[in-house]
Specification:
Layout lengths: L4 H12 L20 H8 L3 H9 L7 H10 L4 H14 L2 H4 L12 H9 L5 E5 L4 E4 L1 H7 L12 H7 L1 H6 L3 H14 L6 H13 L2 H8 L8 E8 L3 E12 L4 E8 L2 H10 L13
Antiparallel strand pairs: 1-2, 1-5, 3-4, 4-5
Helix pairs in contact: 1-3, 2-3, 2-4, 9-11
Length: about 280
Amino acid sequence: MSDNELGTFLRARREAITPAEAGLPTGPRRRTPGLRRSELATLAGISVEYLTRLEQGRDRNPSAQVLGVLADALNLPVAERILLRRIVKEAGHDAVLCSAATEPTRTVRPTVRAMLDGLEPAPAVLINWIGDILAYTTGYRSLAGPLGVLDGQQPNILRYVFTDERARAAYSDWDRLADEQVAYLRHEAPLHDPHVTAMADELTVTAGALFADRLAAVPALPRRAGTDLVVHPEAGPLRLAYETLALPDDGHRMVVHLPADDATATALDRLNGRRPGALRAVSG
């Protein structure tokens, strides 16, 4: 992972905001995209030298006040302000506290198993912070099994997305899916967690630039809801709305899929061997 995530984040956000968006007059043609360092420094009330040190990674422990004025100057939404604070905490002394991270939990609590059972026949799956698939509904098995997601002794969604050629054929929006899986790897556990590092090292070798470039990119939070477009070998094209439920005490997340249109609802019922109407379409 990048050893200067704070600097990368600040520079990318500075280059993404226009002078007009920052409340500055628009001058003649500019060679620098977005704001100049001097402009952002002035807006935030800090020195250009200090902003330069932050962007170059020579200072990784800005105060909460500095983060606040930079976030205001960059017009960051709440989600990105939370992300900025997380990056700073994990780049500083808090990283020492994370170095002895616990083993990713693979035990499924009875109440969580009962929740999955209650979601039948909807496709729902439980995943830990390094992408291991721990439990799922029969509806998910019907959906994901023919795609190859569940192959192997310990199925892992990250390995599937980045190293199984069937993933690209199955997911029409593979790039978005890949981005999200890397975002989960980066943000479901501390960046210095050794298990996250081991998974990142493995996929950097096995998947190459497809994974490594995403890992080195500007940090982004994972999307927890959206629509997956799946080309299923048995059911045909599917539009699946998904919601992600966090189980932070276990380091798990539960992803629940529902049909986003009537054609998908009918196809899933047929795939599950159920009478039409077992699953109803939702707005995806």
